[in-house]
Input
Amino acid sequence: MTQQPMSDERRRANQGPKAAACNRAALAAAAREIYAEFGLDAPLSAIARRAGVGQGVLYRHFPDRAAVASAVLEENVRQVEQAAAAEDATFAAALGVLTWHITESAAFISLLHHPDEEGGRSSLRVLSERVERVLRDLLPKGHRLGAANDLMLAVAMVSGAATGPSREERERRALAAWRLLDIEVGPVRPFAE
Output
Protein backbone atom coordinates (compact mmCIF):
# COMPACT_ATOMS: atom_id res chain seq x y z
CA MET A 1 0.00 0.00 0.00
CA THR A 2 1.51 3.36 -1.03
CA GLN A 3 0.86 6.46 0.94
CA GLN A 4 -0.19 9.69 -0.72
CA PRO A 5 2.10 12.63 0.03
CA MET A 6 0.68 15.14 2.46
CA SER A 7 -0.25 18.50 0.98
CA ASP A 8 1.26 21.64 2.44
CA GLU A 9 -2.22 23.12 2.37
CA ARG A 10 -4.22 21.31 5.04
CA ARG A 11 -7.98 21.60 5.11
CA ARG A 12 -9.77 22.88 8.14
CA ALA A 13 -11.97 20.47 10.05
CA ASN A 14 -15.48 20.37 8.57
CA GLN A 15 -17.65 22.77 10.55
CA GLY A 16 -20.89 21.79 8.76
CA PRO A 17 -23.69 24.26 7.97
CA LYS A 18 -22.62 26.75 10.64
CA ALA A 19 -19.51 27.50 8.55
CA ALA A 20 -21.44 28.33 5.36
CA ALA A 21 -20.99 32.12 5.57
CA CYS A 22 -17.30 31.77 6.44
CA ASN A 23 -16.77 29.28 3.63
CA ARG A 24 -18.45 31.58 1.09
CA ALA A 25 -16.34 34.54 2.22
CA ALA A 26 -13.17 32.41 2.10
CA LEU A 27 -14.06 31.20 -1.39
CA ALA A 28 -14.69 34.73 -2.67
CA ALA A 29 -11.40 35.96 -1.18
CA ALA A 30 -9.53 32.96 -2.61
CA ALA A 31 -11.14 33.52 -6.02
CA ARG A 32 -10.00 37.17 -6.02
CA GLU A 33 -6.42 36.06 -5.28
CA ILE A 34 -6.41 33.21 -7.80
CA TYR A 35 -7.96 35.35 -10.55
CA ALA A 36 -5.40 38.09 -9.88
CA GLU A 37 -2.56 35.57 -10.18
CA PHE A 38 -3.80 33.31 -12.96
CA GLY A 39 -6.75 35.01 -14.68
CA LEU A 40 -10.34 33.88 -15.12
CA ASP A 41 -9.38 30.53 -16.59
CA ALA A 42 -7.74 29.34 -13.37
CA PRO A 43 -9.04 25.96 -12.21
CA LEU A 44 -11.84 26.09 -9.67
CA SER A 45 -9.97 23.44 -7.69
CA ALA A 46 -7.23 26.02 -7.04
CA ILE A 47 -9.84 28.37 -5.55
CA ALA A 48 -11.23 25.65 -3.29
CA ARG A 49 -7.73 24.63 -2.22
CA ARG A 50 -6.74 28.26 -1.45
CA ALA A 51 -9.94 28.69 0.59
CA GLY A 52 -9.22 25.49 2.52
CA VAL A 53 -12.42 23.72 1.47
CA GLY A 54 -13.32 20.89 -0.86
CA GLN A 55 -14.71 21.39 -4.35
CA GLY A 56 -18.11 20.21 -3.16
CA VAL A 57 -18.28 23.20 -0.82
CA LEU A 58 -17.31 25.50 -3.69
CA TYR A 59 -20.09 24.09 -5.88
CA ARG A 60 -22.62 24.38 -3.05
CA HIS A 61 -22.01 28.14 -2.98
CA PHE A 62 -21.21 28.72 -6.65
CA PRO A 63 -22.78 26.31 -9.16
CA ASP A 64 -20.41 27.27 -11.97
CA ARG A 65 -17.41 29.37 -12.99
CA ALA A 66 -19.62 32.35 -13.89
CA ALA A 67 -21.13 32.42 -10.39
CA VAL A 68 -17.66 32.58 -8.79
CA ALA A 69 -16.57 35.43 -11.07
CA SER A 70 -19.87 37.23 -10.49
CA ALA A 71 -19.39 37.12 -6.71
CA VAL A 72 -15.91 38.63 -7.01
CA LEU A 73 -17.06 41.31 -9.46
CA GLU A 74 -20.07 42.17 -7.29
CA GLU A 75 -17.71 42.82 -4.36
CA ASN A 76 -15.48 45.00 -6.56
CA VAL A 77 -18.47 47.09 -7.64
CA ARG A 78 -19.73 47.30 -4.06
CA GLN A 79 -16.37 48.73 -2.94
CA VAL A 80 -16.47 51.39 -5.68
CA GLU A 81 -20.04 52.24 -4.60
CA GLN A 82 -18.99 52.44 -0.94
CA ALA A 83 -16.07 54.72 -1.82
CA ALA A 84 -18.45 56.96 -3.77
CA ALA A 85 -20.97 57.02 -0.90
CA ALA A 86 -18.39 57.87 1.78
CA GLU A 87 -18.96 61.13 3.62
CA ASP A 88 -15.82 62.74 2.19
CA ALA A 89 -16.12 61.11 -1.26
CA THR A 90 -14.50 62.77 -4.24
CA PHE A 91 -14.28 61.76 -7.87
CA ALA A 92 -10.50 61.33 -7.50
CA ALA A 93 -10.89 59.09 -4.42
CA ALA A 94 -13.48 56.88 -6.15
CA LEU A 95 -11.18 56.63 -9.19
CA GLY A 96 -8.39 55.50 -6.84
CA VAL A 97 -10.55 52.59 -5.62
CA LEU A 98 -11.66 51.80 -9.18
CA THR A 99 -8.03 51.84 -10.35
CA TRP A 100 -7.03 49.47 -7.54
CA HIS A 101 -9.65 46.98 -8.74
CA ILE A 102 -8.56 47.42 -12.36
CA THR A 103 -4.96 46.64 -11.46
CA GLU A 104 -5.91 43.81 -9.11
CA SER A 105 -8.38 41.93 -11.25
CA ALA A 106 -8.38 41.06 -14.93
CA ALA A 107 -12.00 40.03 -14.50
CA PHE A 108 -12.91 43.56 -13.43
CA ILE A 109 -11.36 44.97 -16.59
CA SER A 110 -13.63 42.89 -18.79
CA LEU A 111 -16.65 43.98 -16.75
CA LEU A 112 -16.01 47.63 -17.49
CA HIS A 113 -16.43 47.28 -21.23
CA HIS A 114 -18.43 44.09 -21.66
CA PRO A 115 -20.86 44.06 -24.60
CA ASP A 116 -24.59 43.51 -24.06
CA GLU A 117 -25.94 40.02 -24.53
CA GLU A 118 -28.14 39.72 -27.59
CA GLY A 119 -31.71 40.63 -26.81
CA GLY A 120 -31.12 41.93 -23.29
CA ARG A 121 -28.86 43.31 -20.65
CA SER A 122 -26.17 41.07 -19.28
CA SER A 123 -25.41 40.92 -15.56
CA LEU A 124 -21.99 42.31 -16.43
CA ARG A 125 -23.60 45.29 -18.15
CA VAL A 126 -25.70 45.96 -15.05
CA LEU A 127 -22.55 45.95 -12.87
CA SER A 128 -20.81 48.27 -15.33
CA GLU A 129 -23.77 50.65 -15.24
CA ARG A 130 -23.59 50.73 -11.44
CA VAL A 131 -19.92 51.77 -11.64
CA GLU A 132 -20.74 54.46 -14.19
CA ARG A 133 -23.65 55.80 -12.13
CA VAL A 134 -21.64 56.29 -8.92
CA LEU A 135 -18.69 57.83 -10.75
CA ARG A 136 -20.98 60.13 -12.73
CA ASP A 137 -22.65 61.28 -9.49
CA LEU A 138 -19.25 62.46 -8.22
CA LEU A 139 -18.13 64.01 -11.51
CA PRO A 140 -17.77 67.78 -11.00
CA LYS A 141 -20.04 69.96 -13.17
CA GLY A 142 -18.40 70.79 -16.48
CA HIS A 143 -15.78 68.02 -16.10
CA ARG A 144 -14.17 67.00 -19.35
CA LEU A 145 -15.56 63.45 -18.94
CA GLY A 146 -19.13 64.72 -18.63
CA ALA A 147 -20.20 63.94 -22.20
CA ALA A 148 -22.44 60.90 -22.75
CA ASN A 149 -19.91 58.07 -23.19
CA ASP A 150 -16.64 59.81 -22.29
CA LEU A 151 -16.45 58.64 -18.69
CA MET A 152 -16.64 54.91 -19.37
CA LEU A 153 -14.55 55.30 -22.52
CA ALA A 154 -11.79 56.80 -20.36
CA VAL A 155 -12.17 53.95 -17.84
CA ALA A 156 -11.95 51.41 -20.68
CA MET A 157 -8.83 53.13 -22.07
CA VAL A 158 -7.14 53.06 -18.67
CA SER A 159 -8.12 49.45 -18.07
CA GLY A 160 -6.69 48.56 -21.48
CA ALA A 161 -3.41 50.18 -20.49
CA ALA A 162 -3.29 48.36 -17.14
CA THR A 163 -1.21 45.43 -18.34
CA GLY A 164 1.93 43.88 -16.98
CA PRO A 165 3.28 40.93 -15.07
CA SER A 166 2.74 42.42 -11.60
CA ARG A 167 0.11 44.46 -9.83
CA GLU A 168 2.67 47.22 -9.33
CA GLU A 169 3.40 47.40 -13.07
CA ARG A 170 -0.31 47.43 -13.89
CA GLU A 171 -0.84 50.24 -11.37
CA ARG A 172 2.05 52.25 -12.79
CA ARG A 173 0.59 51.95 -16.30
CA ALA A 174 -2.95 52.75 -15.17
CA LEU A 175 -1.79 55.90 -13.38
CA ALA A 176 0.24 56.93 -16.44
CA ALA A 177 -2.89 56.52 -18.58
CA TRP A 178 -4.94 58.68 -16.18
CA ARG A 179 -2.17 61.34 -16.32
CA LEU A 180 -2.23 61.29 -20.13
CA LEU A 181 -5.97 61.93 -19.92
CA ASP A 182 -5.22 64.75 -17.43
CA ILE A 183 -7.43 63.14 -14.78
CA GLU A 184 -6.57 63.33 -11.07
CA VAL A 185 -6.70 60.01 -9.22
CA GLY A 186 -6.65 59.57 -5.47
CA PRO A 187 -4.67 56.90 -3.62
CA VAL A 188 -4.88 53.52 -5.36
CA ARG A 189 -6.23 51.16 -2.70
CA PRO A 190 -9.23 49.05 -1.85
CA PHE A 191 -12.03 50.79 -0.02
CA ALA A 192 -11.78 50.43 3.74
CA GLU A 193 -14.65 51.57 5.96
